[in-house]
Design a protein that fits this description.
Blueprint lengths: L1 H26 L30 H36 L3 H14 L3 H12 L3 H28 L2 H8 L4 H12 L1 H24 L11 H8 L8 H27 L5
Helix pairs in contact: 1-2, 1-10, 2-3, 2-5, 2-8, 3-5, 4-5, 5-8, 6-7, 8-9, 8-10, 9-10
Length: 266
Amino acid sequence: MTGRITIIISSFWVVAVILLAIFGPLAAPADPFSPVGEPLLSPLEHGPMGTDALGRDLWSRILYGARQSLSAALLATTLTVSIGTTLGLIAVLYTSWLGGIILTLANAALAIPGLLLAMLFVAAMGPGYLTVILAIGLGGAPGFIRLSRSIFAQIADEGYVDVARALGAGKLRIARNHILLNAQGPLLSLATTHFAWAFMGITTLTFLGLAGDPSIPEWGVIMNSGRAFLIDAPWLAVVPGALISLTILAVHHLGLELTDRFRPRG
């Protein structure tokens, strides 16, 4: 019962954040880049969340930040899933030297934690918001290659795939009509879990100042700019930090639920 309640709450939270990202900027009371009053006004002085150190409306920046953070995590996850699915499928279809090279490179990359690997990409390419998205997408790809390959390999061993192969079906036809078609559910749960990781990675790198532009209304950037005022204006860092944490937990719980739902039953 407790687990069911957790899933319901997580679902409501994810839907609320998505709606905030879509419609929030339309309802923002002010420009997130322009000052609207004195710096560090409290929520009681300038509702509903006060102003930041530059006098900008914090609520407007939070609304715009939902779209920035979610879209960045979605782009990074799309890159991870695209690379991981393609290379994982190739590694299963071509088990000769090509599949071996893919797995060897993926295993070598997995020796480095994904977030650290993403930071290495940013260090090599230079700070920037698009660089952060690219780095997180590439940093998550090795793990997705290994996990997707396991899913594809399990499906490739099923009897109906052997029948299709015996009837003369080519590798591309088997991949399209049998392996990918039957892997949609597990891949969806895997992608959901990776979205939570991508969201955490994006906000972590932007919190560290690697987005390049400190004026971007993004939750990690907003939390970073507010950490210097934890005593005088703690809401500047607490609000975006709480939003980030709750979103990661909600998406993670949904990913676990999908994983359990699509797990093969004995």
